[in-house]
Amino acid sequence: LIGPPGAGKSMMAKRLPTILPDMSREEIIECTEIHSVSGLTSRERPIVSQRPFRSPHHTVSAAGLSGGGTVPKPGEISLAHNGVLFLDEMPEFRSDVLEVLRQPLEDGEVTVSRVSGTYTFPSRFMLVCAMNPCKCGWYGHPSGRCKCSEKDVRRYHSRISGPLLDRIDIIVEVPALEYEELRRKEPAESSADIKKRVNAARDIQRKRYGESSTMCNAHAGSRELREFCALGEESESLMKGAFDS
Hints:
Rossmann fold; alpha/beta; Mg chelatase-like protein
């Protein structure tokens, strides 16, 4: 999410868990195990039944994100397993910290090596990031208050590496809101209504994959893709055009 301060980027990210599908029994067990190992469960809250939402500060260390310690414990990316990992002000994170995300985004797990041994933690999460369009935050704003040069803007964006950007599927520009837009009182679609549609879509995917361990399209491997996502001639043509562009 790229937009100026006050556009609502953080608010939208924090609302995301309210429209995500209900967790399955297996997902609840996985999340509870991870949070229990980290000492985050209690007698009052022994089970993690809601999808996690983790939002580490931009000063977090690489070990804090991936996991670590003398006896390694899960980091933020594993605590966000089956939920959302939100990085606000993404370019403000150290580059070595951001690069930690590459393996988990690819493999759905993170490996931590210590003298005592090698530990692998699950880390399949939805990554959501927010950033300003430039260092001052106002690049492209109609007020003209931004004084950043094109070189400054490119330098700011270059803090996020190409390989990491390749793993981000959707980039959305969030425009500044006008005062009249903030005053609108027309009712919007509720999170509960959106979640019903999301749950219905997830149910379709569960039926599609049957007894397979795959629960949704995002987790499908090469075998499932060949079986369920065979492309027709028209689809092949569309895919080829996207690949070549």
